[in-house]
């Protein structure tokens, strides 16, 4: 009995390692490829795959001889995703980000061409940024707004520019459409955005995207505070913000694609 239990656990562990091989970068594997990748006996790989196929967890491709994930996992993935509350998942990470930076942290979503604040963690300092939950902000002058704009396809971005006035909030606000386009392209490349007193004087912010399993931006986080504090540690804050966003993205099932230069 003990031997059977140990054997069953080993098989489950092997099965989990096998399933982890499937990704957006390689969605289909042959038995030989998996055997070489996992340094696992070919017969064992084949038996695991055929067993998974009977339950719809994988499906075979008769033309290529390979296997890909099956429809059963789609249902399980949707059930998992629907049970996820971004605020609950992000909370511990963003609380930690507040403690590391000493500044306020915002969690935002994209709503009707604006940025909406859905949660925040306030700085322990007496002088800090505090905003009512549910408040909406223009996108062109906020760090999180630029994150969301960076994901828009070109036609959607053109629509945004045609339908929305780039209102001036401070002397630093970007109001030129081509200048904003260039700024958004930089954000798309770096996956980081900044607001150097563009929405409000004396407030500087750094933002990063939170990606979901479907490779799309689900939300955006920002660290923000008084300019005199933020500017002295902006590089450190940028690194911490990006690290936090990647941790949350991973918890949502996001797998980063390799960028080939």
**Which fold name corresponds to the CATH topology of the largest domain?**
Beta-Lactamase
Q: How do the strands line up in the largest sheet?
A: 6-5-4-9-8-7
Poorly predicted ranges = none
What profile does the largest beta sheet have? 6 strands, antiparallel
Give the proportion of residues in helices. 40-55%
Radius of gyration: 23 Å
pLDDT averaged over residues? 90
Strand content: 15-25%
Domains (count): 2
Global outline? elongated
Counting DSSP E segments of at least 2 residues, the number of strands comes to: 9
Secondary-structure arrangement, i.e. CATH architecture of the largest domain: 2-Layer Sandwich
CATH homologous superfamily grouping of the largest domain:
GAF domain
Task: Give the CA-CA distance, first to last residue.
Answer: 54 Å
What is the string of SSEs from the N terminus onward? HEHHEEHHEEEHHHEEEHH
Give me the secondary-structure category: alpha+beta
The number of helices is 10
CATH class designation of the largest domain: Alpha Beta
């Amino acid at each position: 009995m003990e031997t059977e239990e140990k054997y069953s656990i080993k098989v489950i562990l092997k099965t989990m390692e096998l399933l982890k091989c499937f990704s957006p970068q390689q969605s289909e594997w042959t038995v030989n490829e998996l055997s070489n990748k996992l340094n696992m006996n070919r017969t064992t790989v084949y038996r695991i795959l055929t067993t998974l196929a009977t339950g719809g967890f994988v499906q075979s491709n008769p033309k290529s001889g390979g296997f890909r994930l099956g429809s059963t996992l789609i249902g399980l993935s949707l059930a998992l995703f629907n049970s996820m509350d971004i605020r609950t998942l992000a909370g511990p990470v963003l609380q930690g980000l507040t403690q590391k930076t000493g500044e306020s942290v915002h969690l935002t979503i994209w709503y009707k061409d604006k940025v909406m604040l859905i949660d925040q963690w306030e700085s322990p300092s007496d002088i800090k940024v505090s905003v009512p939950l549910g408040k909406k902000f223009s996108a062109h002058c906020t760090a999180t707004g630029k994150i969301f704009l960076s994901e828009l396809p070109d036609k959607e971005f053109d629509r945004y520019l045609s339908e929305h006035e780039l209102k001036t909030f401070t002397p630093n606000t970007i109001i030129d459409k081509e200048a904003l386009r260039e700024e958004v392209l930089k954000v798309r490349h770096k996956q980081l955005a900044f607001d150097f007193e563009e929405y409000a004087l004396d407030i500087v912010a750094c933002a990063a995207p939170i990606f979901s399993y479907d490779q799309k931006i689900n939300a955006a986080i920002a660290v923000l505070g008084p300019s005199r504090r933020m500017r002295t540690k902006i590089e450190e804050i940028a690194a911490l913000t990006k690290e936090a966003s990647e941790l949350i993205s991973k918890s949502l099932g996001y797998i980063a694609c390799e960028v080939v230069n």
